[in-house]
Design brief:
The complex is a heterodimer of chains A (322) and B (287). Chain A has 2 domains: 181 residues, HUPs (Rossmann fold), CATH 3.40.50; 117 residues, TPP-binding domain (Rossmann fold). Chain A is built from 8 helices and 18 strands. By secondary structure, chain B is α/β, with parallel strands linked by helices. Chain B has a single domain, classed as HUPs (Rossmann fold, 3-Layer(aba) Sandwich), CATH 3.40.50.620. Chain B is 27% helix and 28% strand. In chain B, the strands form 3 sheets. A 9-stranded mixed β-sheet of chain B has the order 11-10-9-12-8-1-6-7-13, with helices on both faces. Chain B is globular and about 65 Å long. The chains are: A alpha/beta (322), B alpha/beta (287). The interface between A and B is large, with 94 and 76 residues. Strand 13 of chain A pairs antiparallel with strand 11 of chain B.
Amino acid sequence: MTLAKIWVFAEATDGKVSSTTLEILTKARELATTVEAVYAGADADAVAAALGAHGATTVHTTGDLGGALPGVPVAAAIAEAASAGAPDAILFATSYAARDIAGRLSVKLDRTVLTNGVDLVLTGDSLAVVEPVFGGTTNVTTTFVGDGPYLALLRPKSFVAEESGGAPAAVNTIAVPDTGAAGAAKVTQRHVEERQGPQLEDAAVVVSGGRGLGEAEKYQMIEDLAKLLHAAPGASRAIVDAGWVPYSYQVGQTGKVVKPTVYIAAGISGATQHMVGMKGSKNIIAINKDAEAPIFSISDLGIVGDVNKVIPALIEALKARG
Amino acid sequence: MRDGSSARQWGTGLDLAPARLAAKNGAMNVVVCVKQIPDPADPGAMDPETKTLKRDGKLILDESDSYGVEMALQLVDTAGGGEVTLVSMTPNSEVGGLRTALAMGAAKAILVSDPALAGSDALSTAKVLAAAIKRVEGADLVLTATESSDGYTGTVPEQIAGLLDLPSVTFAKSIAVDGSTLKVERQTEAGYDDVECPLPAVVSVTAGVVEPRYPSFKGIMAAKSKPVDEVTVADLGLDASQVGWSGARQEITTIEAAPSRAAGEVVEDDGTGFEKIVAYLDNLKVI
């Protein structure tokens, strides 16, 4: 059986719908007869075409939030819209904004929210969410119990986006109720950390460094190697937490999910946190001095050695090839 | 950016402290939600009976929570008064992790301990923690981690805020108090945002943004006699059917091994390891 209706919370930057939104819309088409989007931004007209082309017949929009953090106002707007005709499920990408909205909404609707999903399965008259645990070695499937709407947060790159050929979604404005002091958190200034070269999520080759580099200055080797391979440089949470590189470099559970043709893990032991974000890579090359490091259990080529020797030698060899 | 070290300087009475730091007559009361988890150094396992994470061994303070504890202690220092109260829940009276946070400098703790809590989903967890936070008088700020290191749903902070009907800021890199306004640098996908929010509020703190202090010997000794108020679900006015297995609106139906990647060739570097990599990349036509 299929569900009657699913809402997908849509996110976009500068009028471009996020790839994760399109992936989730594609999956939602498989699960429900009607798929609609919910959007929080001033430019719903600009995103309606892409949302429609991926299966959303309507986009319910709150309009501009005036700098408010989206969690409270958007959850209040969705809850009110749902009271007039609730969908069976509301799906979100795992993002900062969506996590806040889903959390607030779960309280408003008094419904559980399942997180870190990588797949959705119809089970009888309910829905189940598949979540990887222990570094992705085990999959746990959790089924919603009781009444909907079922709320789920899904990880990027869990599904492949495909167009449905649908017409632009009809734009429907939904009201944002007054949320008082609870909704008073406001963004006063945005800061964008510029990255050069290929973006982590899109690059065919990713070179990531970890604690095994030894010190922050050695990360330059990762940048140099990435440049030679036209790759995006990435990092483990350990060195992001240590302040060696900005958060935007982080690959893993709380960072970016990457699935490149080649992933090179240099000085990364392979914590669950990291592996969940890169184990979908087609080819994995790992360099680590500890032969027992978990990263070797998923690598196609493992070099047990000192990254500070192997990487410079690799850089020289690649330069020599020109 | 206001990092931990400068905040601590203000607290030591150096005259760097701007007047704006007095939150409420120079006092700041901070509640920190902390979780006691199995040592991540031990490999995790699922209990085949209950289909949940096994948590029968010794529990420790989730490292993710140590950043919130540190930040809370710094905010209290900076304000020149007030105290840090811990709030935690467990099915089995475990206090090992709480003692660590008390040894760091927290004044007291409320521990919701009840066998009925086993199997609680994220929303039930938030309901219990929110009810416990309400018992803390005069709380100006509630801090949490962004997600626990074992269950990592990452929704509990926002759910607590929703239940308390308070404003919230998630993924804080730094926190400063300006009168009754909180100024937070909030991590985003693209960088970070400056966010302002009225107090009282709930804030989740990103791991790694401050250096958690090591408990001193004196702190460890003092922690042993600090009050831990142990309460049950019923003491909080909650019905046991709202929490634990009976309250969960979700059911784990299957646990199975994920399709695994076979480990490939692993070689010891003898100085020519890089050649293996070049050959591998060449074969894939990446170079």
